[in-house]
Amino acid sequence: MAFHGSKFRLLCRLLILMLLSASCCAKAAETAPQFKDFQSETSLVVPIPQTIETDQAKARLGKLLFEDKSISKGGKKACVECHLSDKGGTDNERLSMAISDQPRSTNTPTIFNVGLLPMLGWAGAGTNLEDVTEAIIKSKHGLASEWPELIEKLNAYPSYKTQFNAIYQMPIKPAQVKEVIAEYLRSLITPNSRFDQFLRGNDQAISLDERRGFELFKSYGCSSCHQGVNLGGNMRSPFGLFGNYMQDKGKETKADLGLFNKTKRPDDQYIFRVPGLRDIALTAPYFHDGSVATLKEAIDVMGRYMLGREIPEKETALIEKFLRSLTGELNGEPL
Ligand code: HEC
Ligand code: HEC
To answer: Are 293 and 301 in contact (CB under 8 A)?
Structure first.
């Protein structure tokens, strides 16, 4: 579902207000919620599958390319320099440096669990990993490569030539380069977070505070946008349903226009994909512009600009604890 335009903004606001009035009237839970209390709502958030079927030969080759500077113009940059596995699949920079030595216009999002996302990029304008990979390979803000030159380069490495040939039994083609990198990205799931263990029925996997945080996450209405297997990533929304974040933060940039930059439709201004919140503790700074440094600030901004609420500090701390229980494992190792 794509969220569009000012009419839509009004509708969102109305829905959120209805949700809030319902939660305000609800009696505060006196005892800590138990797993059974959530069972009727597990469709709101579901665990990441423990394993995912990928073609291992393609994924292995994709990993080699992902880590190889030689796929960029002049051999200057590799994908992995911005998307590091030990930094939650990001680089923890506010904005990373493009190959041109200019800062990128948006913060680097994680590549973990991207295979589970129906829309890609901050504005959610990308639809599949192959196309996004190609766009990055060719973009002057990405690797600034041209296909003919890149294919020639890969052919000059006997090991790449042999590996592609073993998989596809034909000369290297752009479609195959995209496919193996995309297959590697699809293999990067981070299952088995403590919260997923809880969703699978292990009441002890998360603390009382983390459970309370999840309750608040639902009752405040965060889960009306951040939902599904990635706790986000499956819908778009204007950033700033209540108040104007872009104005308040000081300097508005072109990137703040979100989906509009792709579609040029006035209704798409400030529209962003609702990002997933998996492994969110590891991916600071936050938002498309990397404008806030901490999870606490991100929650405050969401309360203020997406829900029209000042969330009391104690509750922000509980929501943060819940979000920190969403850190999973990569290839069986804790992140
Ligand atoms: C200079 C840093 C940089 C490099 C190098 C880089 N990326 Fe990214 N990547 C980004 C940024 C910034 C975005 C967000 C772009 C946007 O949507 O505004 C992004 C977005 C993505 C996404 C979408 C993630 C999502 O949440 O939807 C994928 C997938 C991805 N990159 C994979 C790659 C691959 C594959 C390569 C190498 C071919 C690569 N990246 C190289 C910075 C980088
Ligand atoms: C109306 C939809 C909506 C609601 C409600 C909402 N969010 Fe968001 N959230 C978004 C969008 C859209 C973004 C991306 C904004 C951007 O980056 O420009 C976002 C971004 C975030 C981020 C930063 C993600 C990242 O990778 O940088 C966090 C953390 C977050 N939200 C948590 C929450 C919490 C906690 C709540 C409830 C207090 C909440 N959100 C309520 C839509 C929503």
So the answer is: no
